[in-house]
Amino acid sequence: MWPWYTNIAPFSWFMAYGVNEGRKAVNFSDWVGYSPGQQRKLLTESCHDVMSGKMPGPYTVLRPETRLSSQDIDTICAAARKAEANAGVSQ
């Protein structure tokens, strides 16, 4: 659910822009449509992005609850490592 202030410009523009840019990079709603290779690449890139603080992005200023915890980051990076390991087994 979007917070009330996202109905007010320019906050609505800022939030919509962030969501659209994120979905261009990876849309987890379409995850099953990605090939296994694309999934591995996206997980690896997601791990790098969360480790560097790039993700979830600057809108955490408006929505501090979207900040990722160290456990969230560990989970994303563990999924990336597992995907890479599984790729090595299946090749």
Helix content: 55-70%
Content of β-strand: under 5%
Radius of gyration: 15 Å
What class do helices, strands and sheet pairing give? mainly alpha
Query: Which spans have pLDDT < 50 for at least 5 consecutive residues?
Result: none
Question: Could you state the order of secondary-structure elements as H and E?
Answer: HHH
The number of helical segments is 3
Number of strands: 0
Biggest sheet character? none
What would a concise description of this structure say?
The protein has 3 helices and no strands.
Annotate the secondary structure layout.
Blueprint (H helix, E strand, L loop, with lengths): L10 H15 L10 H17 L17 H21 L1
Report on this model:
This protein is an all-alpha fold and 91 residues long. Helix content is 58%, strand content 0%. It is built from three helices and no strands. The protein has helices at 11-25, 36-52, 70-90. The relative contact order is 0.13.
Key structural traits:
single chain; 91 residues; mainly alpha; 3 helices; 0% strand
